[in-house]
Amino acid sequence: MPTKNFGPCSIIDCTNTDIKFRTITELSYEKCCMKKTLEAYSYLENTFASSVDMLTKALYFQQRRKCTGLELDPVNFERIIKTINSGLKGFFNYLTNAIISKEHSAYNISEAKKSVVGLCYLIAGLRNKFVNWHKLEVGLYLRASGATWEAIDTMSSLGYSSCAKTVDMYQKKVQKEYSAKIEHYFLEHVILNYIFV
């Protein structure tokens, strides 16, 4: 039960208990940013730690709940994280501006933004081990490139890749699923076509 306010701002006969009335709205937040009144109330702004937490939850939601793959295109990545959590609006640009120098050429900036996307996945993976598809993709790439188990495990210990055993188990799982799909296809289409011909 909310506490009752007995001051000059007390509200009488209000039956609405929605939490929305106790939070700052997006419009009021934008007005505060434009008038620079948030400098006195810095606790209302998202900190870097809270933004990383929101990013981790957004990527977890995308990978584990929606079962979508990695998004490595910077424009689409920014759109996706803003769609999942509006509190991340401007966070990708904040990271990009902090990491990439303005003196770079346009091509180098666009290429560096792809690295920032990878960095976002690595940061989220450090915070939550289940946001790890990026590391698995790196491990699969290393495996396809002919890297040894030791090389993959070294990259894993640095935090850039999944361990070689995880990569190997995932490859076996994909092979098994692919074999089952092929078998199912032949059972449905080839045998039925053979009977009717």
Automatic annotation (TrEMBL):
Domain of life: Eukaryota
Protein name: Uncharacterized protein
